[in-house]
Amino acid sequence: MKNFSPIKRQNQQLKNFTVLCLGLILITSCKSIETYNEAVVKLHPVEDVHEDIDKLYKQLRRHHPRLYQYTSKEQLDFKFDSLKQSITEPITSRALYKQLAQVTKYVGQGHMSIAPSDKRFKRQERKALNKMKFDINNIDTEYLDDKLFIRNARKKDTVLINTEIIAINGQKPQDLYKSYLPLVASDGYNTTFQPRVVGDYFFTYYKLNNGRFDSISLTLRNSDSTFVKTYKRLPRNLSNVSKDSTVTDSIKTKQKLTKAEKKAKKMEFKKKKEERSKKGFDYKRNEFRRELTFIGKDSTVGYLRIKSFTGWKYKGFYEETFKELDSLKTETLIIDLRNNLGGSLKEINTLYSYLTDENFTFINLSEVNSRIPLMKAAMTNTRSTFGKILTGIFSPIIVTHNLIKTKKKNGKIYYKFKASKEQEPNPLNFKGKLYVLINGNSFSASSVLSTTLKGTNRATFVGEETGGAYNGTVAGQYKTYELPNTKIKARIGLMHVDSPYKTTPDGYGIKPDVEILPTYQDRLDGVDPELEWILQDIEKEK
């Protein structure tokens, strides 16, 4: 037994060393969180602020492929220099964010964003927060006719739909709205995106400008009364069913199923899950991202509502959708892209293949500033150490892939997406009449799809000018860079994505053939004026 004592000592030493390392990591992590949180709230010296401004502009010059498309280099240089000169006293990160956002918006790319950092939490604090709920997330807002109101709501708050918000913690929403607009960038010179996105994400901008909050008081007004509703971050309700033996026994009794019943239940669950996956079910919002319905007594008019081009099972959905339209001999299809902020390039490429009967090249080669854009996106200072190590391990594969996918032409570097190759239309392509509903929140992928449909004269567009530019946008891949002193985060697009179709002047969205702007009264009356016009136009055609 004595022969094993050195091994025991070594094992004990190894354990002690491991415990020491874990202790040091924990202490370092806690200290790091404390240092970070201090940087978020403290007043930063002028020289540190100037350094961060310079570093952000340097990152933009290095990575952004269309930095001076809408604002010349001389003008943008002047704006960054003027910002530095205007800051002569120490300021907080959030104060700098508000000033920085009003300069970076002149880049004219809505995908680029500036955001202040919030307090970080320790592991135990995060676990506690995950057990909390905040019902303010159950309401969606909209801003029309100089009024902020609840456009949609979930759970118990459905009774508040169309209720006007006349104060937020005592502040008028109109004043807040005016202060948020200058902080939002759009594509080019577009003016429809900012009002829509601020109205729809009002509490997101409230948080960006005021910091994280655990309670908020809304003064609401409907046709009958004015009242106050306060939302607080509260513990999630935990079921006491498991503590009640009688109820538990009852449930156990009810759950006794035969093998055949269990198999049938399992198949039913699998089918439901597959269906939800195809339609892009959003579990947080309890709604589908994409769904086909029919308007009227028959199936002659199809209505395809796409709230977002996100999710993985879209191919099955579109195959089933257009197979159904074909079998039912649907004559008219309405595609609703209102408030669709974009998503997957692959998905809109797939959708377009069902909307044309000719060979097509969906997008051009994408201009980039580097032969390795995916590596640039991955190796950034916001990525965790583990993430960087993992990227380093796979870097030979990533770099090789990037080099194959990029090429130099006329002194510029281009990235080759699959959508930039010539393709054939899907055999199930829809040949009937096509209408597309758009508004200022039709952005990114929604605008790229709309550009191609507009450029080929394939559809009649109804609504409002899109927030995304007709001539393309800088997106595709992003580099998120954190300013070293103030911890402000900047998301920088790395690829210029555009359709072969162009319009002049540059810097505006897809204009509707028929412009119709909804009103707050329309919402109160439950009227959709854009859709109503289309249905009336269909009747005229008959």
Explain what the structure shows.
The protein has 542 residues and is an alpha+beta fold. Helix content is 41%, strand content 19%. It is built from 17 helices and 20 strands. The protein has helices at residues 5-41, 46-63, 73-86, 93-104, 123-130, 173-180, 193-200, 202-210, 245-254, 259-278, 314-327, 345-353, 373-378, 385-405, 445-455, 520-525, 529-541; strands at 113-115, 132-134, 139-144, 147-153, 164-168, 215-221, 226-235, 281-282, 287-288, 290-294, 301-306, 332-336, 366-368, 406-409, 412-415, 433-438, 460-463, 473-482, 489-497, 514-515. The strands form 5 sheets. The protein has a 6-stranded antiparallel β-sheet. A hairpin with a 2-residue loop joins strand 14 (406-409) and strand 15. Helix 12 (345-353) runs parallel beside helix 15. The radius of gyration is 27 Å and the shape is globular. The chain starts with a helix and ends with a helix.
What keywords describe this structure?
alpha+beta, 6-stranded mixed beta sheet, 542 residues, 6-stranded antiparallel beta sheet
Structural class assignment: alpha+beta
What gap, in angstroms, lies between the N and C termini? Answer: 98 Å
Enumerate the strands of the largest sheet in spatial order, edge to edge or round the barrel: 2-7-6-5-4-3
Name the poorly predicted regions: 17-29, 239-253
Rg, Cα atoms, Å: 27 Å
Count the beta strands. 20
Fraction of residues in H or I helices: 40-55%
Mean pLDDT: 90
Globular, elongated, flat, extended or rod-shaped: what is the shape?
globular
